[in-house]
């Protein structure tokens, strides 16, 4: 396919939260821009609920019975929905051979921190119990392939929720998380972040001012340095025994420096964190798949990472090196 970069940026700019737009209009704009009547790859779509949290259940034609994918959508804490993210999560579910769950958690400003996090925690615990119960019915208890495996994926502001979820998990739950994948993650809202202290920081989609506006809707200023809001503020105890983290982002992002710092932090405490940077790409280029061939390739790479681990005892780093050579 021939790339249309200008059209891709125009589409992705609908993720930009402006003080000049009403929040309800912002939500509608995201839904209208990113939703689709048709889902890719012949996936099946159902709906379920964990207490009051409604979730899409997206099932590809072939998926691993012992694995699920939990996707935590972005939207600057105030927008995003199942409707908007279904096509992208359907593509990820198919690529990773995983049944995917996409929850509609509560959004700010009507429901500020920690409402959305509490919803995600509730969904995760329910999914773990459901998966563990289903696998316990397997008669061959020595089959290691029947171990519950959860993939956690998130983008932009959803990365804050994803990491807050992980920081709060006990060892039993954390060990069930096989892989974390973050797309263009927002990791630091603290006032010490250079992004907010420098003038006119921006990329092709977001500005530092738009990220700050999102954080103001999400929680009060004194809470911006809370590690459950800004993952870069995590303590060593929070970072130990973390599952492998894979960060995929474009080269031309204002979030790049934070991602590099986060990678170093995780590695300093014995974790595995790989940073997958795509040259000349903008934030969330994966959502512009009708305009960018790189979007399709990026999703395929995520799929190869997960399914290669199904067939190999190698670690994430070794698998990624092979993928790069190919």
Main attributes of the structure:
about 325 residues, alpha/beta, 8-stranded mixed sheet, about 40% helix, globular
Binned, the helix content reads 40-55%
Overall geometric form: globular
Q: Helix and strand string, N-terminal first?
A: HHEEEHEHEHHEHHHEHEHH
Please state roughly what percent of the residues sit in beta strands, choosing from under 5%, 5-15%, 15-25%, 25-35%, 35-45% or over 45%. Answer: 15-25%
Q: Name the structural class.
A: alpha/beta
In the sheet with the most strands, the strands line up as 1-2-4-3-5-6-7-8
Provide an overview of this structure:
The protein has 326 residues and is an alpha/beta fold. It is 41% helix and 16% strand. The chain has twelve helices and eight strands. Strands 1-2-4-3-5-6-7-8 form an eight-stranded mixed sheet, sandwiched between helices. Helix 11 (293-310) packs across helix 12. The longest helix is centred in the middle third of the chain and has 22 residues, at 115-136.
Please outline the helices and strands.
Elements: H1 5-12, H2 23-34, E1 44-50, E2 53-59, E3 67-72, H3 82-96, E4 99-103, H4 115-136, E5 149-155, H5 157-167, H6 171-175, E6 177-183, H7 194-197, H8 208-218, H9 236-239, E7 245-250, H10 256-268, E8 273-278, H11 293-310, H12 316-325
Helix pairs in contact: 2-3, 3-11, 4-5, 11-12
